[in-house]
Amino acid sequence: MKALVTGGNGFIGSTLVEKLLHQGHQVTCLVRRQSDLRWLQNLPVAYSYASLSSGEGLEQAVAGMDWIFHLAGATKARNRQGYVDGNVTITRRLLQACRPQLGLKKFVYVSSQAAAGPSLAGVPCTETDEPHPISIYGECKLAAEKEVLSLSRELPVVVLRPPSVYGPRDRDILVYFQNVNRGLVLVLGKGDQQISLVHVSDLVDGIILAAEQSASNGKVFFLSGDGYYDWNTIGREIAAAMKKKTITIRTPLWLLHLASWAECAVAQLTGKPALLNADKVREMVQPGWMCSNQAAKQELGFAPQYTLAQGVRQTSRWYRENGWL
Ligand SMILES: NC(=O)c1ccc[n+]([C@@H]2O[C@H](COP(=O)([O-])OP(=O)(O)OC[C@H]3O[C@@H](n4cnc5c(N)ncnc54)[C@H](OP(=O)(O)O)[C@@H]3O)[C@@H](O)[C@H]2O)c1
User: Best label site of 22, 170, 248, 260, fewest CB within 10 Å?
Assistant: First the structure.
């Protein structure tokens, strides 16, 4: 198959590109002139410099493609407009370029669990639940999903919602590994927030399955690993994988808000988006982020391979080998 991947140089995108190439597909990565291409170096991929922001060159970029994997998105932004531009507008532009195209076999949009919102009353979210995003990021991912699904009569589209993704090359959950390396497990409050997780390798398997299955057309799927975990358990698993003795430090909520406020103040001065912005904090304080992978298992044949223990062991090994720990 001929595949166009947006966001192909990022954490999830580059893992997807490797797997597509491994399976014998032909891959074009849509990147920006300033994109860091370190994960794609030495891979036999073509590049497109079409612009998702202006639309320039997009019709040529999508022409003749069998699969389009749309992973490009702003996970952090300075303000609401940044999230809208970086998620909704770029998705609309890409879809507009695809509309007149004949022969596209699948447009796969990688959305997020944030579009669905947190799990309520300790019950994992399913695809039939009414979305209730609580962050601007989540609202924008949901708005982008709607753009995609509104074309489901004209185009074979599918929307995928991963929960938090971990694995080699990830820089977000890396922080927990770094803390464990220092002998610390930092948890918020009691650390009892229950979450879903997915290893990046399992996620990209699911993304490719969703492209292959015609039964996925017009549908939404959560792609999460098996099981639900609280942060005490995740910390313990990371410590076991790294063979580290740790002490657990419980961070009170007020300290989280203070840290966020300080980081946002610095971000204002530097002009860069803060990692721990108010949006992120709102997500962190929810009681649960659990989602069910039953529909993906039944309808796509999704079969996550990594247990949490195996996943964090493989990830910590990669961090060490690459000097990230
Ligand atoms: N990581 C997670 O835990 C997670 C969970 C759920 C959903 N997701 C979704 O998965 C997707 C990939 O996430 P990731 O973790 O792999 O993030 P990432 O490593 O930050 O990669 C994001 C990619 O999107 C590209 N991009 C962003 N805005 C763009 C634009 N306007 N034009 C062209 N390219 C643009 C970036 O290109 P540059 O390098 O040029 O900036 C980068 O390649 C995102 O849509 C995210 O919302 C991620």
Answer: 22
The answer to whether position 267 is within a domain reads no
Evaluate whether residue 323 is within a structural domain.
no
Q: State the CATH number of the domain containing residue 219.
A: 3.40.50.720
Domain count, the chain: 1
> Ligand 1: distance of its center to the CA of 12 in Å?
8
For residue 188, the model assigns a pLDDT of 87
Pick the closest to residue 308 from 163, 118, 161 (CA basis).
163
Mutation probe of ligand 1 site: the residue of 6, 9, 12, 172 with most atoms within 8 A of C-beta: 12
Q: Is residue 232 part of a domain?
A: no
- Residues of the chain falling short of pLDDT 70: 100-101
86 DSSP 8-state letter: I
Q: Report DSSP state, residue 226.
A: S
CA gap 145, 247 in Å, rounded: 41
- Whether the CB-CB separation of 110 and 12 falls below 8 Å is answered with yes
The overall pTM is greater than 0.85: yes
- Cβ of residue 293 lying under 6 Å from some atom of ligand 1: no
112 lines ligand 1 (CB under 6 A): yes
* pLDDT tens string 70-93: 999 999 898 999 999 999 999 999
What range defines the domain where residue 118 resides? 2-169+198-226+290-305
Per residue in 136-155, pLDDT tens?
999 999 999 999 999 999 99
Decide if 139 is inside a domain: yes
